[in-house]
Amino acid sequence: MKDKKFPVREKHLSRLKNQIKNGDTLDNMRDNIASDPLLAFAILNEANRNIRNKNNDITSPLHAAAIVGINGIVRLLPNFAPYYLDPKQTSPHLSAFLSEVQTSYEAASIAKLWVSKKQPSGSDDIFWITLFRDTAKWLLWLYAYPTMTRINQRLKKGEAASHVELSELGCRIDEITARLFILWHTPHRIVEGFYSKNVPNSSELQTLAHLAHDIDQLPNLTENKRLTILINNPLIFSYCANKVAHEAHLTGWDSKHLPFLYRVVAASMHCYLSEITYTAHIATVQSARHYNIGGKAPLAQQLLNPDLYLRYAPKPKTPNCPVSSLKKALNKHSLFDTKQKANMALKAITKSIPSLKHCIIFKHANHKTLPLYQSGYEINKVKMVKWNTHSSVFSKLSQQATAVHFSNKTLESAQVSLPYGADKILEKNSQLVLLSTQVTQKETVIFWIETSAAFNQKDYTTLKKIVSAISHRAA
Q1: 124-164 confidence digits (pLDDT tens)
Q2: Secondary structure of the chain in HEC code, one letter for each residue
């Protein structure tokens, strides 16, 4: 990794070369240098390599450019590899690289806004420190895309990051980062963010979070000297902001881990938890405005209009699957009665069975069969059928979950087994499907489905899903 070139967007690199060729001043180059993270990072490292007094650590790339000078920037040009952004043909590894850079910008924006509430003078420094914290991870996504993809997939499944990284890379990504920072001559202030003396361990994080346990009150103050040192070091904001940005991208803003991190920051700033959450959200909106570089949709999109930051027309919404809509509706609560479930099931059936002609849904309870809903039949004809007369078919349906399919000759011969008068409502060349399921301990629902064409396997599978969704076993 240490021998790999830093990828820089082609338009930024070309503009820089033209500015040098035309004899522009460093002041005119400032915006271009700051606009590309790895261009700024390389200049920052070069300045740090040249300074003699390491106590005067440099964290601002613009300050670093002034130290390096035009000649120093020229010497760095061979270390850059230009890349092009084509929205139609962006390669997966380049998209992943840009996505990681954007996440770092979001983390840096969050950290900067948090610090500005406590130590306004150090907010710019903490922005650059947080932004460059994951530089090695950016390059890993670019140059080791398959490995990083496997790591990310395992993290989404809930595996511990330490275990996954060790098994896939042989060491932690933080260890790789710290080693590369030394080889790149990265400012010590950025490297310090990985030292245990500056980062709280899991036990200390728990203690800090507990100080802000009551979200409606100001956090308690700590008397622990170690914790006092940690919360007065702005690097804790860099650490937490980095965790927040990655967690929000990995599992969303509703992640159960985010409130824990917010409480740690609330304890460090001694302010209400709501203020920390609000500030983090505002920071991501600011980042979306200034640093939306095309890798992926920014975090702010989850908070605002879903289409606000898309650079392409949103795809038309596809209609919801009737079966999925039914299951989603049933999952809202467990208080639906048999009649309500039958009504929802009828709507799903009429939308999902193309060959459906007629449908009746019955409730069987206390040895009586009662039509609840019907579709396609004349109501008077349905009422004329003696549904409670003896029927061997309905008797079986009411006693256990059953599915029966009658077609052509089998339907003609089976009509005598149906309730008296049921044959009168059937049309010629129709097929009849009967299903039943227990909805409550004492109530069974029976489905009468008449179709105009062959009832195929897909229709049967769909109908079975609908019946299963309202069954007593699914509740």
Answers
A1: 889 999 999 999 999 999 999 999 999 988 888 888 888 99
A2: CCCCCEEEEHHHHHHHHHHHHCCCCHHHHHHHHHHCHHHHHHHHHHHHHHCCCCCCCCCCHHHHHHHHHHHHHHHHHHHEEEECCCCCCCCHHHHHHHHHHHHHHHHHHHHHHHHHHHCHHHHHHHHHHHHHCCHHHHHHHHHCHHHHHHHHHHHHCCCCHHHHHHHHHCCCHHHHHHHHHHHHCCCHHHHHHHCCCCCCCHHHHHHHHHHCCCCCCCCCCCCCHHHHHHHCCCHHHHHHHHHHHHHHHHHCCCCCCHHHHHHHHHHHHCCCHHHHHHHHHHHHHHHHHHCCCCCCCCHHHHCCCCCCCCCCCCCCCCCCCHHHHHHHHHCCCCCCCHHHHHHHHHHHHHHHCCCEEEEEEEEEECCEEEEEEEECCCHHHHHHCECCCCCHHHHHHHHCCCEEEEECHHHHHHHHHCCECHHHHCCCCCEEEEEEEECCCCCEEEEEEEECCCCCHHHHHHHHHHHHHCCCCCC
